[in-house]
Write a structure and sequence with these properties.
Blueprint: E1 5-9, E2 12-14, H1 26-30, E3 34-41, E4 44-45, H2 48-62, H3 69-85, E5 92-99, E6 117-124, E7 131-135, H4 155-166, E8 171-175, E9 181-184, E10 188-192, E11 197-199, H5 210-222, E12 226-228, H6 235-238, E13 241-246, E14 250-257, E15 260-261, H7 266-281
Parallel strand pairs: 7-8, 7-14, 11-12
Antiparallel strand pairs: 1-2, 1-6, 3-4, 3-5, 5-6, 8-9, 10-11, 10-13, 13-14, 14-15
């Protein structure tokens, strides 16, 4: 197991295993902050521009100042260079984290104009087990303050994922408060029937996944039928094919839904080929 890690914090490379963050940081005390997970490929950080766009959008959605994009890009470049200098020919997962910085122990944020905390961490990419899913017993609130934002307040995802693991699945799938299909704890969900791939619209409360966005765009360019549509959560159990998308794995077929086997769909497999080809040809689409 490759347990190497390269870390950058507030302007410099640091020891990833040494204490670095103050215990008063608002990201630590109340989960107030945003993050991105970026796939580091041999060609560089994949879709970095889209990830930074979403990082800024999530910060605005929380009412936080946006991190300086040039600084984030410099930090990613420093970490990428260090990862490769330390023998990191394999792919890596880059985690970009932004918080408002140190504050009090309560929920009141640091004063406006505080410098904030910016961190970038690289760790070795991990192999994924075949995707199996289980419905979360708790809904996603599509009208909540965090809907559609990639925030550090990730406890509901962790709880749903732990429940899925107890049920023998690798991923949890959320419905929303209206009983509609929403998204996965760490992924976007696509359903496939005989004619098309369908994913819930962002108004369902789903995160605006970068891979989701690329699948929608690239499928249209390649003539593969794909669209957004509100769907009942129960559709997860009735369709013949299910797929999930995530930055760490592209698009992958789901092989079981709540213990019932599913075959990879032909459109899912076709889209996986398109994604692999286009990701190789354009590292920052």
């Amino acid at each position: 197991m490759d347990d190497r890690a390269i870390a950058w914090l507030n302007g410099r490379l640091v020891d990833a295993d040494a204490p670095q963050i103050t215990l008063r940081d608002h990201g630590f005390t109340v989960g107030d902050g945003v993050f991105e997970s970026v796939n580091l490929t041999p060609a560089g950080p994949f879709a970095l521009t889209r990830h930074l766009r979403r990082l800024a959008r999530s910060a605005r959605g929380l009412g936080l100042a946006e991190p300086d994009e040039a600084t984030v890009r410099d930090a990613v470049a420093d970490v990428t260079r260090a990862w490769r200098e330390h023998g990191g020919e394999r792919g890596a997962a880059l985690r970009i984290t932004w918080t408002p910085g140190p504050g009090g122990a309560g929920s009141t944020r640091p004063a406006p104009g505080s410098p904030g905390t910016l961190a970038v961490l690289a760790t070795a990419s991990r192999a994924h087990a075949p995707a199996t899913v289980w419905r979360s017993p708790w809904p996603r609130n599509e009208r909540g303050a965090l809907a559609g934002l990639k925030t550090l307040s990730y406890a509901e995802n962790a709880a749903a994922l732990a429940h899925a693991h107890r049920m023998g699945a690798t991923e949890a799938v959320f419905g929303n408060t209206r009983g509609e299909l929403c998204d996965g704890a760490t992924s976007t969900v696509f359903l496939e029937d005989a004619d098309e791939l369908v994913t819930p619209p962002l108004s369902s409360g789903a995160l605006a996944g970068v891979t989701r966005e690329l699948v929608l765009e690239w499928a249209a360019m390649e003539g593969l039928p794909v669209r957004e549509q509100h769907l009942p959560l129960s559709a997860l159990l009735s369709v013949p094919h299910v797929a999930i998308t995530a930055s760490s794995r592209g698009i992958a077929p789901v092989v079981a839904v709540e213990g019932r086997a599913r075959r990879p769909g032909p459109l899912t497999l076709a889209m996986a080929e398109v994604f692999a080809r286009r990701r190789t040809s354009d590292p920052d689409p």
